[in-house]
Amino acid sequence: MSAADDPVGRTADTTVEPAADTPVERAAGEDVQDVQDVWDTIDRLHAWLDANRAHDGREGLLLRVLKLSEEVGEVAQAVIGATGQNPRKGLSHTWDDVRSELCDVMITAMVALRTLAPDAREVFTAHLASVADRSLGTAPTP
Questions:
Q1: Is the Cβ–Cβ distance between 80 and 5 less than 8 Å?
Q2: In this predicted model, what pLDDT tens digit does every residue of 71-102 receive, in sequence order?
Q3: pLDDT tens digits, residue range 32-56?
Q4: For residue 88, what are the CA distances in angstroms to 8, 74, 91, 129?
């Protein structure tokens, strides 16, 4: 029995297993959504949320950004559950749960960015390029 299967949570398996469906595996046999498709989906989610929101204006904007804190908390809860750190609950989550919650954080952040910037895909692309240049050594270091 692996630690992940132990319902009592006597041992915590802290090994993070790679996702079974990696980009390489998908590229081998399936179409992968390109960046344009991802942002099209974010635009649709943004429109759906706007059409169904309980609050608008500044309050709606703040609540949409605060949603990120809720999602990050769910990541923390899943990590605690996947490692069995709460002796009362034992191993209550899996690393698949953690991955799923991280995806929720990314989606929520993208929708929040779209709420703040109608040109979110361009803003994100430019920022990502700046971070990559700074982090990967192609930009001069201070």
A1: no
A2: 999 999 999 999 999 999 999 999 999 999 99
A3: 457 679 999 999 999 999 999 999 9
A4: 9, 18, 9, 44
pTM assigned to the model: 0.72
Angle at 27 between CA 106 and CA 29, to 5 degrees: 125
Token readout for 64 is: 């949409």
pLDDT of residue 27: 42
Closest listed residue to residue 102, CA positions, set 128, 121, 129, 82? 82
Nearest alpha-carbon partner for 91 in 82, 101, 103, 100 = 82
Q: Among 1, 23, 5, which residue's Cα sits nearest to residue 94?
A: 5
The total of other beta-carbon atoms located within 10 Å of residue 3's CB is: 15
Copy the structure tokens of residue 72.
């990050």
Q: Give CA 141 to chain center in angstroms.
A: 29
**Amino acid at residue number 86:** N
